[in-house]
Write a structure and sequence with these properties.
Radius of gyration: 25 Å
Largest sheet: 2 strands, antiparallel
Distance between the termini: 13 Å
Shape: rod-shaped
Number of domains: 2
Number of strands: 2
Structural class: mainly alpha
Helix content: over 70%
Number of helices: 8
Strand content: under 5%
Order of helices and strands: HHEEHHHHHH
């Protein structure tokens, strides 16, 4: 027996929220793919110096986001189909998946908040290691490799130096720093600041998307429970 009245309204509201949830999964997947192939981050994270790859924590986080986006799209479809079919089994499965996703999102949010500086700090340390070698007065293969790493950082971020070493900065500024095209003047903004800004902006995008999805998930869990109860009450008694 089909649900009626307010329960019917809840059914279609649940379908609507699940459709939004499915779309949100697609948005998360799209954001993750954009972060994976973003020119700035790709140019920096593909660098190699003295046999060491640039820290890959950021890419690990991106791959997790790709998996989450794909799972959200599957769960969203499951919820839409379960709501239309008024299936307690499908809705129960959907609710269980939703609770697990919500718990994972909360755990990921806590982990991300605690380690919000980790990605930029790792890259800053990688930059500093190359910086020390690049300002070595002795011309060696190591210095040449470090100089290439420095140029990649400076050209990608349009920055120069660490901003805290004036004595060595003159060497870096005159040999490894990019020039402003308009004024043909040397760029002097600290790469430490630019690196922190680069990843903090991306984390803000992820954080806002996660907050919006969490709100949708809470409404979905409420509507799913109400609809399941309505379906059970509307079922004929034998």
């Amino acid at each position: 027996m089909a649900v009626t009245g307010c329960s019917l309204c809840i059914k279609y509201m649940l379908f609507f929220f699940n459709f939004i949830f499915w779309l949100a999964g697609g948005v998360i997947l799209g954001i993750a793919l954009w972060l994976r192939h973003d020119t700035q981050t790709s140019n920096l994270l593909m660098l190699n110096f003295e046999g060491n790859q640039a820290p890959g924590t950021f890419y690990i986080s991106v791959y997790v986001l790709i998996a989450v986006g794909a799972i959200m799209m599957f769960v969203g479809f499951l919820g839409c189909y379960g709501a239309i079919q008024e299936s307690q089994c499908l809705l129960g499965t959907f609710f269980t998946c939703l609770v697990m996703l919500f718990a994972c999102e909360v755990a990921a949010g806590i982990w991300g908040f605690i380690n919000r500086e980790t990605i930029s700090t790792e890259l800053i340390n990688f930059y500093d290691a190359a910086y020390i070698k690049a300002v070595d007065p002795v011309d060696t293969p190591t210095r040449q490799a470090a100089s290439k790493v420095m140029v990649a950082f400076h050209d990608t971020l349009e920055c120069c130096g660490k901003g805290d070493d004036n004595a060595l900065f003159v060497t870096v500024q005159t040999t490894l720093c990019p020039h402003k095209k308009a004024e043909d003047a040397l760029i002097s903004q600290s790469c430490h600041i630019k690196l922190r800004d680069l990843f903090s902006e991306k984390l803000h995008v992820i954080g806002l998307a996660a907050l919006a999805i969490a709100v949708i998930m809470i409404f979905e869990m409420i509507f799913t429970m109400v609809l399941c109860c309505s379906i059970r009450n509307a079922a004929p008694a034998y």
